[in-house]
Write a structure and sequence with these properties.
The chain is mainly alpha-helical and 46 residues long. It is built from 1 helix and no strands.
Amino acid sequence: MNSGAEIRNSDAGFVVTSVSCKVILILLRIIAHWIRGMQEDFLCSL
């Protein structure tokens, strides 16, 4: 019984970490894209 509960908890933790990693990657992509856009706007304004 205890081992089953532990496995469930570890699976849930794995799902949470994988989802949070995906969210972080998406945020990094958005930030990198935004910075690139800012640089292009800055170069165009010069």
